[in-house]
Structure formats: structure tokens, C-alpha cells
Amino acid sequence: MNAAHLSLAEHAARLRRRELTAVALIDTCAQHHARMEPRLNAYKTWDGARARSAAAAVDTLLDQGQDLGPLMGLPVSVKDLYGVPGLPVFAGSDEALPEAWQAAGPLVARLQRQLGIVVGKTHTVEFAFGGLGVNAHWRVCRDTGQNPT
Fold this sequence. Notes:
Strand content: 5-15%
Number of strands: 3
Largest sheet: 3 strands, mixed
Number of helices: 4
Low-confidence stretches: none
Structural class: alpha+beta
Shape: globular
């Protein structure tokens, strides 16, 4: 079966059985991102280098038998409304919000405690006001209707 069609639970199980590495998973995400992002415009911020570094650290811990939770080693995208330390928050506006907004809230903090890997931040409508996906400051995200594999 194509790895893109596996559930998160199966990816997590393969990581723990060491049939899959976190680095390989991140590399696959990066390949899909490079191929699809020009058409989709889904990401405001892509953090592939930091994600790959985090994946290498996760692999070291998994090789040592450490498991910090079900999200460990899994790539995750975070909407650009949420703070992720080290990544700007635009919340769909035309300027980055003050650095204090980068602080992790409960959701991102829990993800980070389990060593889930934030690969980037996805676009949002300005300050999450609206449901049509239209943003005057950033190009509209597109659905190509194609499976990204």
C-alpha cells in the first residue's frame, strides 16, 4: 500500500517498529510539498529544515526505545492562528503579530511534549473571520481535486 494512504496510527506503529524513520516521513512530506505547494498555496510558512532536524532527534529517541506519545515523529501542519515557538504568526493579516503570539498554547504545547513535528503553518482567512477562504493579503488556497500522491 502507498504510504500516503496509511492512517496516522499505522505511520506511528511503523515508526515504533522502526520500519519507517521520522526523517523518511519528513522527507516524503517535503517532496509532496515541493511538488504540490506551487499549485495549492496551502502554507504561509514551511519549516522543512527544522522539521528534518527534529525528525532526526525523534529517530534517535525511538532507536533508544523512548516513546513520548502517539504523535511522536508524526508531521503536523498548524493553522497560522496558533503560536509555534520560532515561527511567525500572521493570522491571515498582512503583517506578523508581535513575537509574544509565537508562544505555544495548550494544543501546540501538547503536540510538542509528544515530539510531533510541525512542518509548517497553513494559511487562514484574516483573523479567522469568514468561511470562504478568501484573504485580501495572501493568494487564495486551491483545491486541485487531485490526490497529492
